[in-house]
Amino acid sequence: MRQWLKQKKLRVVLAAGLVSTGALAATATVASSGASAQSNVTLTMESSPVNTLTQTYNPFNNTSSIYLVGGASFIYEPLLQFDAAKAGVIYPWLATKYAFSDGGKKVTFTVRQGVKWSNGTPMTAADVAFTYELEKANPSIDLWGLDITGVSTSGNNVTISFPTAQYTNLQNIASVYIVPKSIWSTVGNPSTYADATPIGTGPYVVGTFTPQGLTLTKNPSYWQASKVKIQTLDFPAYSSNTTAEEALFAGQLDWAGNFIPNLKSLFLNKYRGSTAWEAPLNTVTLEPNLNRFPLNELAVRKAISLAVNRDAISKQGEATLEPPATNASGITLPEFNAYLSPSVGGDTLSGAADPGAAKALLQKAGWTLKGGYFYKGGKELAFTIDDPSNYTDYAADATIIASDLRKAGMNVSFNGMSDTGWTTAVATGNFDSIIHWSNTGTNPFTMYDAWLDSAYDTSSATGDYEHLHDRAINSELKKVATAPNLAAEKAALAPVEEYMASNMPLIPLVYGVAWSEVNTSSTTGWPTPSNPYESAQPASPTNEVVVLHLSPRS
Question: Does the model's pTM come out above 0.85?
């Protein structure tokens, strides 16, 4: 599950409301042709493989089932929604507007009136304030890395304060899921609360649950009830990309978000009008655990970068759908060309592997080649790449990388894991290295912040998976967040990009895309390149925006 599959921006401009959609198509299953089209539509969707589910709907726990299937935003909602496919578009949601003050150190949200919780009680500014106080008091649930210093209310306005300006960080601030104070004030530890019977403001409530899947059904109290034209959302637990693809090809799955080679012949040609829009959105990296030898050595990380064959990863592992990363800063190109600092413009990455150069670098750093592998101080240069076996593209990527690195004298192997075991390992730091996508935002700050800011490194980490703790880079990231305009942001990003290129806390591999496959048999209103009101990837929180644009086919 890709947490906030966010995207690009120049300057944020508050949109007046939901943009209108074009009448393009997608898929859902009409339960009965004789019934009302609006009351009997089930959308079956999948954003990422998962083996089995537990009855947990906690929006602050990235191992809860609703989080894993990508359904959190259908129950709980944020203050603002952001168009992950079009720069500068923000949708007022539980907040009708926002305003920065105190030089950007405070942001005030005007809370929407007339919104009800799914139990029929009003959602108020007190609930919003409570949610941010809960985040402030419990770092373990802070999925957004927020450094909140204070929360206050005045009538229908909630003001959140920070120690530094936060202009560039609006997306993270406004993406927190709002929860009811009446319930969450009594739950004890909010990070471990199962939330088995959730009460939210979203368009759906809990329907059915089994370890093999869960459903959500229309919330009659929803504040945008006229937009909810899909009665039921179905989230089956597909154990792998392969089983999800088989369901898609058989017409059993309406909306998927998977890597699928030969998509045209296997799916698009089979279902008339079906679509696959794979918008570029992030950078995929090899993330080393900096707490573990030998990946805590810079020379080793640089040697890895030299030895990997990015062209092979792109062509063989990702079926040419994700191009090789070309700059050591990791910035997603060409999406963020405008933010690429001239100081790192020459820090290019080779598509081809250079094991000779990797070996020379390691020898210069004091490593000795013995029996085909390098050693230092009696320790072998050995580690694993830990990723789910059922993420078939990442499994292929890891196999390619391990083979490349063994040719360069590094004893590396792919450790295939279950998706649930991997999610826990990533959150707790129990791994050697992982292949992982970056967060995607309206600008590069969201990506770099989640990569490098040590505030994300908690007992249930949602970023800084490599366990980087560098006060200087934390300070530089805060400067980026304070930037009031594009020019200032570009200038502030330069030292962050330079740090990435020089220190390689993460090793860029390919530029990731928003996997999206839609069977358009029964619904219309899906986002497209010509109508990019949102990305088409079925992951929270933007999938809520998409579903509220969908209508059954007449």
Answer: no
